[in-house]
Input
Amino acid sequence: MMAHIRIFWEATVMAMQQLTGNKLRSFLSLLGISIGIFCIIGILSAVDSLKDYIQGNLNKLGNDVIYVQKWPFVDMGGNWWDWIKRPYPEFSEYEAIKEKSWTADMVSFHIDVGMKTAKYQSNSVEGVFLVASTVEFATIFNMDIEQGRFFSSSESQFGANVIVLGANVAESLFGSIDPLGKDIKMMGKKYTVIGVLKKEGEDPFNPLQFDDAAFVSVNSARSMISLKSNQFWSSSISVKARDGIDVRQVKDELTGIVRAHRKLKPKQEDNFALNEISMLASVLGSFFVTLNILGFVIGFFALLVGGVSVANIMFVSVKERTAIIGIKKSIGAKKEAILLEFLIEAIVLCMVGGVIGLGLIFIILTGLTAALDFDLHLSVLNIVLGLSASILVGLISGFVPALQASNLDPVEAMRRK
Output
């Protein structure tokens, strides 16, 4: 055991001497290792951070929620002309699902009315995205209320003229004034503000950006638009599964209810889409896999160059220490000890390059996190992966030189200078 520790220590010291003895050669050799680790682990860390963030946003929509919609989330290319003829989900279908479904824990319905103008006294905000929804919408979509509340079941049922504003809308209309209880006008109708949503910020990866939106009840919107016309952009029914109920079972039940409500014949195809978040996750998953492969390809070639450079250093090291190797072997050093000594030296050299690469990644990710206000992190798994890749490169690049050193004849080796 002590002998192995001594060999490891001596090999480490030799590796440090190689690094400091010829700084330019060491720099050029370790540059490839550092760049390779930087490319692989840097891209993996960025992709993992982005994936975690997007997945967290998608989870707000619920992995156990089915969306009855006109358009599917994916595969938009082939049947576009057939899909455009489909009707939008209607409020009566929401009522039918709510009445007949036993697999659903909660059902909501909402209509995207479109961009409207909101007015308060002399202030006005254009481009407010008006949404008409049922009361369950806030719960299914995990809406964060900064002030006040969402409208109640009775307010939804009787079409009370109340409204919930997104953070940007409330700020533009009222500034520092408390908006709760104030009356605003939209589409010629007066609404009382009862709630303000928490600010989401400008985030291209957040599917729930309600900062520029406003919410009224479906029954309140009936006086402004026809729920069976083209006066709105789109509509959707969201169905949350009961605990312990498989999503596929919910989809099967919804298919039967909606087909029966639309009076589709057995041979007719569905004229609606049942979407779930896993569809978006699968599309994003393939995108992330592509990015990871790109990082591995770039990193592989950088590591290949670095590995060749480290092998060159090791061949030079063997040549410079040939006489010493001969002396060691003549006084009883075993072949395995010489082999292990040079392998450890190559591994240490590569690990130095790997640590430099990981250090650069940490510095850059920390800087980007502060600049972009977006959490980019270097996980323990990626650190272990980076160091493991360094060790592997060291083993591969150092094996042939180490084998050459261990096979030297002691007499011939001592004669060389």
Notes: The chain has two domains: 2-57+282-415, 65-275. Residues 65-275 form one domain.
